[in-house]
Every structure is written in C-alpha cells, then in structure tokens.
Amino acid sequence: MQSPPRLIVGLGNPGAEYAKTRHNAGFWFCERLARELGITPSKESRFHGIVAHHRAADVWLLQPQTFMNRSGQAVQSLCHFYRIEPAEILVVHDDLDLPPGALRLKFGGGLGGHNGLKDITAHLGTQDYWRLRIGIGHPGDRNDVVNYVLKPPQREEGEAIDAALDRALLAWPVLVRGDWPAAMQKLNAKPAVAGASDKSPSPLPGGAREGS
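User: That's the sequence. What structure does it adopt?
Assistant: Structure tokens below.
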C-alpha cells in the first residue's frame, strides 16, 4: 500500500464571479470534503490560499487563491513548510477530455494542457503526484475552451458533476488510508452519461443554483 495523501489541492479561480464556473470543480470538491470532515477552511496568506487541516488523518486541504495559472505558488509554499512530498499530493481539477460526471484518478502522466497542473509541475519540479480529474465536457471547438470553462455548467451537466462529487466523497475512506488501487477502482468506473440537450441553468454542485 502506498503513502496516504497529506495534501488535497482543489483547483479553481478565486472570487464570486468564478465560483459557479466549470473551471472551479476542484474548489467544489474541497468545499464539500471540508463539510464532510467537519473542518472549517480559512485564508492563510503565507500559503496563498484557503486552508483546512483534518487532524485525525493529518490531511491538509488547499484552495489556491492565486488564480489558476499560478496555483503552484500555493502548493509549493504549503509543501515546503510541512515537508510534504509530491507523491503525497492529490490535485483535484476540471477536465475537458472527460464527459460531465466522469472521474479519473491517476498518478503522474501528462498535463492535458491544464494551466493549473502546468504551474504546479513547474514549482514541484515533477509530474509525479496524484490527480483526480473531474469531467466537465468539451465545447467541441478549441477556440471556445476559455469561454466554456469560465461559464457555469448547463442543468444536466451540473447534475452529472454533482453526482461525480458525491462518488468522490464516498471514496474518501479508501483514499485516506492510502489504498490507491481500490480508490481507482471506485472512482474510474464509468458513470451514466448525462444528456446535453437541456440548456437551462444548472443546479450547481453543492446544492446552490445560479443567482442564489
């Protein structure tokens, strides 16, 4: 059995204008995990992010507040201070190459063009850390990607992402004890594919709705 995670990093952009956008799927996971664990995150300027610590498991939760393309600054700061190795990090992020609601847990490998992962890799000096990819779907045209990730998901997409976050939380007991193969078996199972025809506003992961 490999080492359990000591740092969970949820990627996203700070600020109310980004809170409901697809690019903040990693933030959504961290927020839900903190509620599940009964811990309260707070802003820590020395770590450039919103941080929480679960003492029983000795796991840190981090939401970088440096904007996506500078996420590595926050990760490096916390890892250096608490002597956390890259293999003890799980980065949770949105993924264009997976349909809404799909999950993939993997160790190392390519960065998929994700700016948050690129910056974390540059700061850590390695790609060898764990990632939990949360599918958000692809707009179909790469020229539309920036606009797509910075908008809220449509209704059925949001429901699928919400269900994926629920499945990810159910795998937490396996993750926290470092049983990565069992966690991959749970998380990488193919979910039901949500339809894409409904273009009404989504229920946002966590139960909020647009305008709430």
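Residues 7-187 form a domain with the Rossmann fold fold (CATH 3.40.50.1470).
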